[in-house]
Amino acid sequence: MGQIENAPFNLYNFHKSLGVLILVLMTVRLIYRLVHGVPPEPKIPAFYRIAGTVTHWALYVLLFLTPISGAIANMFYGASTPFFGLFEIQPFFVKNEDTANFIFARHKLMGFAVGALAIMHIGAALFHYFIRKDGVLQRMLPGS
Q1: What was the pLDDT predicted at 35?
Q2: Nearest-angstrom CA–CA distance, 60 and 56
Q3: Contact 35, 101 (CB under 8 A)
Q4: Has residue 142 got a pLDDT over 90?
Q5: For the chain, how far is it from start to end, CA to CA, in angstroms?
Q6: How many domains does the chain have?
Q7: Which residues of 60-86 are buried (b: 16+ CB within 10 A; e: fewer)?
């Protein structure tokens, strides 16, 4: 029965671990992009290029801010942030549940925004592949 009672806590620790992993992967991705640049722009109307650029950078910003805000809120709550049971990041802020709750509320909104932007991004990639057939999706794939 103990495993069932701890299941929500384990799921929450998994959520926190995923946040740390996303932050690490986004850092590696950003460094790679800065070092290697981006593939050449496809020949598409300016509206699509601008919309893609804005969405792309909004995802970058949110994929950094969302896990950072979650970790900071978690620390203000007085809890450590685990990484898949390998190690834990200990809180280094003075416990303040009001501040934690304030940040957690924004963290939740950012999570919904990431989801919405990701769905929009996937939809746009599929639109370019199946309808416009303009090579935008192929540009995103490795080795393009």
Answers
A1: 93
A2: 6
A3: no
A4: no
A5: 51
A6: 1
A7: eebbebbbebbbbbbbbbebebbbeee
**Token pair 């799921």 is at which residue?**
11
pTM, to two decimals: 0.87
Take residue 125 and report the two structure tokens written for it: 């990639």
Residue 81: which residues within 8 A CB-CB, separation 6 or more?
A: 16, 19, 20, 71, 74, 75, 88, 89
pLDDT digits 0-9 by tens, 64-101: 999 999 999 999 999 999 999 899 999 999 999 999 99
Residue 141 in this model has a pLDDT that exceeds 80 = no
Domain span at 19: 2-140
27 token code pair: 């850092």
| Mean of pLDDT values over 106-119 | 98
Average pLDDT over residues 101-117: 98
- CA 54 → CA 7, 10, 39, 84, distances in Å? 38, 36, 17, 33
